[in-house]
Amino acid sequence: MTMRTRLLLALLAGALLLTGCSQPSAPGASADGVSLTVSGGFAGVRHGIEVGPGEEVHLTDRKGGREQTDALTPAEKKKLNSLLDAVDFGELPSRSVDENARDRFEYRLQYDGHTLVTDASTDLGPASDLIAHLESCMEARR
User: Fold this and answer.
1) Of these four, 40, 49, 128, 141, which has the most CB atoms within 10 Å of its CB?
2) In the beta sheet, which residues pair with residue 59?
3) CA nearest neighbour of 75 among 142, 131, 135, 133
4) Contact 66, 49 (CB under 8 A)
5) Which residue has the higher pLDDT, 10 or 84?
C-alpha cells in the first residue's frame, strides 16, 4: 500500500468519525421529554421513540419520518417516571461504548439536557433499565 493510499484512508476514516459524532439532537430531548434513538448493527438500523412533556409519543423511522402514536398506558407511564427518577443523569458518562466491538446497536438516550450514548456492552443500572423500557414502549407501537 502506497503512502498516498494510506493518507487517503486515514483522511476518510477521520471524516467518518467526525460525521458520526455530529448527529443533531432529537426533538424529544427537551427538559420534560425523553427520547431514545437506536442505530447501527449489521443492517444499519435506525429508529426511535420520543415521549414529550404532555406524554405524547412519537416514533421515528429510518428515513427520519416521525409519527404520533398512542399515549403511554398508565403502567408504562408509571414505570417511565420511576426509572427517570432512579437514573442519576449527572453521574452517567456521556459515552459508554466498546470501541473494539463491531456491528452493535448504539443507543442515544436524551433527557433534561443530558445525552448518553451506549452500545449496552456495560450495565448502566437504571439507565439500562430505562433504555429497555423505552424500547419496549416503541415495540408495542409498531
Assistant:
1) 49
2) 49, 67
3) 133
4) no
5) 84
Using DSSP, state whether 117 is helix, strand or coil.
strand
- Please tell me the least confidently modeled range out of 16-20, 62-66, 72-76, 102-106: 16-20
Greatest distance between any 2 Cα atoms in the chain: 62
Residue 32 CA to residue 44 CA, distance in Å, equals 30
pTM over 0.85: no
Q: Which residue has the cell 399515549?
A: 71
d(CA 118, CA 96): 5
Query: What is the distance between the alpha carbons of residues 108 and 97, in angstroms, rounded to a whole number?
Result: 11
Question: Are the C-beta atoms of 59 and 69 separated by less than 8 Å?
Answer: yes
CB < 8 Å & 24+ apart, contacts of 70-74: 70/141, 72/137
Question: How far is residue 13's CA from residue 97's CA, in Å, rounded to a whole number?
Answer: 18
